[in-house]
Design a protein that fits this description.
Distance between the termini: 104 Å
Radius of gyration: 37 Å
Strand content: 15-25%
Number of strands: 8
Order of helices and strands: HHHHEEEEHEEEHEH
CATH class of one domain: Mainly Beta
Strand order of the largest sheet: 1-2-3-6-5
Helix content: 55-70%
Structural class: alpha+beta
Number of helices: 7
Shape: elongated
Length: about 240
């Protein structure tokens, strides 16, 4: 009986040791899995470092491309966000407006081209309204000394590309009170003189809307280059004031 008891105790001791070794093995296995992950991460870093050393030009190109794309994406998302009500509430909208106005101020300024030194031009100024839109031209009525006159005009310093868009834009101002600055006769259509004209609605030269809405683009080195300076100053004042 004593031998049987001793044998049972030995078997129980072996089982305890086996379970202890099994638990220890399980812990080591778990730790090895973490080490493998960390080692894989560091192996990746080492591989990138080795590749950058062996291919420095490709590495620099990849790095700058990634940085450029990431920055561009961030700026794009901020630009979209700045147009929201929350963006305006926290100030991003105002920054966007200033940047946009500064861009248009520069755009109109550079389109002066080789006509930057032209003498100042004084326009003929009258009050009136648009009667009709014909292609990229407009028939306007204006008043001088109580007498009504008509002229055929072109939006000064803008090359119209989207004729339907221009017609819709002109029709939106049809019969509404406007101020006309007639600068220069630039040609004829149907036997009538065509005048390069700046149209004003209040304090805004509405010609610039044609470029903002992508209906047309700024004319390069126009004969009425002074108008470009007017447009540029209009946007620059808005950029400074934050309007």
């Amino acid at each position: 009986m004593d031998q049987d008891r001793v044998h049972e105790e030995q078997v129980a001791e072996l089982e305890r040791r086996f379970q202890a070794y099994q638990a220890k093995y399980q812990r080591i296995s778990n730790n090895n899995s973490l080490v493998t992950f960390d080692g894989g991460f560091f192996d990746l870093r080492e591989s990138i470092a080795q590749w950058s050393y062996e291919h420095p030009k490709a590495y620099r190109f990849s790095f700058f491309s990634f940085t450029f794309l990431s920055t561009g994406l961030l700026v794009f998302l901020l630009w979209i966000f700045s147009s929201t009500s929350l963006g305006y509430a926290i100030g991003f909208g105002g920054v966007k407006d200033r940047v946009t106005n500064a861009y248009y101020a520069a755009l109109w300024a550079v389109k002066v081209g080789d006509k930057a030194n032209l003498e100042p031009m004084t326009p003929e100024t009258s009050l009136g309204y648009i009667e009709k839109v014909i292609g990229d031209l407009m028939v306007v009525s204006y008043f001088e000394n109580g007498t009504q006159y008509r002229r055929l005009i072109k939006a000064a310093n803008v090359v119209v590309e989207d004729i339907p868009g221009f017609v819709a834009w002109g029709e939106s101002y049809k019969l509404k009170p406007l101020r006309f600055d007639f600068y220069l006769r630039i040609g004829q259509a149907a036997g009538r003189d065509v005048w390069a004209t700046v149209l004003w609605k209040g304090r805004e030269p509405i010609n610039v809307q044609l470029v903002e809405r992508h209906i047309g683009y700024p004319e390069v080195s126009p004969p009425t280059a002074v108008v470009n300076q007017l447009y540029s100053r209009y946007y620059w004042d808005k950029a400074k004031s934050g309007e």
